[in-house]
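Before surveying the methods themselves, we first show a specimen of the format, giving the amino acid sequence and backbone structure tokens:

:::
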Amino acid sequence: MGAGSENIFGIIIGLVLIVISALTHAGLKVVKPQEALVLTLFGNYTGTIKEPGFYFVNPFSVAVNPANHTRLGQSGDVSTKAPLSGMKSSNGNDVNIEIGKKQISLKVMTLSNSRQKINDCLGNPVEIGIAVTWRVVDTAKAVFNVDNYKEYLSLQCDSALRNIVRIYPYDVSPNVDTTGDGQADEGSLRGSSEIVANRIREEIQSRVEDAGLEILEARITYLAYAPEIAAVMLQRQQASAIIDARKMIVDGAVGIVEMALERLNEGELVELDEERKAAMVSNLLVVLCGNHDAQPIVNTGNLY
């Protein structure tokens, strides 16, 4: 009986030590720089550890990070892969499992969503893409106010982008108010990219404030007409450029003609009546505004 009692007592002591060791190991936490650990105990939020170091917490505390398995193709997608001991795939390689981190990154991260096709204020479809620089500033809000703060940010970026793009035309257009003051302005997606990007950043920030996120910067990474109208809009841009160039040529030609007439009158080199002046103006404008070099013709007859 004595030996049996000692064996039972030894087994009990061993089990107690194993339980104590397991609980101790469960309470050990490591927090790296620019990381945070959100802890809950029996469903209640107990606090957040933000300072780097080695900690011992309540072994029954649970670290919460609902976005640890979310992969959006951004700089904040961090995970580790650990091989399963003794398990091989059909081709003989180790079987790896992906382990998401329970720590929440406090680093500055960049989200680059896929390009979107959106109609501008004139109804023209444009393709646009943005890159958003962001970080977590309130870990409790990020964990408990939204289901998944990464997916939430991605959806709000898409929604805010659509709202802002619909206010602007692709190019400067007449009678378009982009500021909301009731007066037409020269705002456009192509010409006012800094203003548009800032408005997108402000729109996203107002939407993710409750999720504990801070939007540091938003930048337009891609902007173009949709393929179905790109060729037509290119012709329109070319026509507009030709018209602007013609206007500049005509303004310059008229100025040259005025200067020529003034110089002739000042120097009293020749007296021209109105009909001769009209003929001179016509000839000069034809020469100056023509697409091709002028072919000089000497008139040997009489003007009349």
Q: What stands out?
A: The helical segments are 2-27, 139-144, 149-165, 193-208, 227-267, 274-289. Residues 2-64 form one domain. The longest helix spans residues 227-267. The first strand starts at residue 28 and ends at 31.
